[in-house]
Amino acid sequence: MSSLVSDLDTLQGLVGKLPGPRDLKVIDFLDEHALRWIAASPVVFVTFGTPTELAVTVAASGETGFTRIDESRHFSLPLTSLDDPQLAREGVAVATLFLVPGMEETLRINGRVTSVADGQVGIAVHECYLHCAKAFMRSSFWSATPSEDVSTDHAEFVSHSRFMALATIDDEGHADLSPKGDPTGSLLQAHQNAIWYPDRPGNRRIDSFRNILTQPRIAALVVIPGSLQVMHISGQARVSTDETVRTSFAVSDKTPKVVTRIENAELSVRKSEALARARLWPTVPTTADLNPADIFKAHVQLSRETGLQATLVRAAVAVPGMMRKGLENDYKNNLY
Known about the structure:
Layout: H1 8-15, H2 32-39, E1 43-50, E2 53-59, E3 68-71, E4 74-78, E5 93-99, E6 106-117, E7 120-131, H3 134-139, H4 154-160, E8 163-169, E9 175-181, E10 189-191, E11 194-198, H5 207-214, E12 217-223, E13 229-240, H6 243-248, E14 259-271, H7 273-278, H8 292-302, H9 308-318, H10 322-333
Antiparallel strand pairs: 1-2, 1-5, 3-4, 4-7, 5-6, 6-7, 8-9, 8-12, 10-11, 11-14, 12-13, 13-14
């Protein structure tokens, strides 16, 4: 296979330089913004994993606010809310994506399972931050209509997929769950006896890539918005600049600079009872007081990052309206 990428410096150069310190928008507790987001969320994508085992599932109770907040650095999910409750084991790494209907940003919380008892999965918070809206914008996630006309054929599901929660883990056992989204036919493709997905412009933290280079095992939960069927994918990932494959993923005349190959992929399709309970489609937008620009700004100010660059970024986002304008410009001009 040609054009494998095997070092972080090359990857960062291809993806683009970070606009500030890597963890500038990351906090290690649940602030008031995160608590409001969680309270408005009826569904969570969750990965549980170790360096040798990794899987993604869905949690939902059918009601917003089903996640219990124990304290600012600890929350709990009901075992009965999980499609795959057996994945939750004490001590394993956890990464989550909290979705709020109509909101295209997602709240990412990473941590570790502290307990599985009394019908609850206790989770300690290590990282909390808001993720940009691009994956949900590209996939038109919230504009879908309910559909039962979805094939369970693996190839057909791959070709119609539009959203993916991608799980990776590093060799020290820290998990990450990243949202990926694209129009039909541009999220996943089969080439060279493997499944491939592209890298699109995002936050440029390259968390997934960092993990893949040290621990290539990945898992993903794939969604066709509007459908209750989900596809589970697992396999070994390799990052590539293969020109032929990259060209096949071009959208709006924009070709991704990097693609990832999933080798020895194992695929399975089944109904998600959690998505059925969540009733995401047709979407009824949240009435909760959630302003992504304010959340990004607050997390930048609360971050523990220090140094001149962090100080300059904080000063910039403190200017009234600056964060909102920056997000609007990024979403408009850097979607692909």
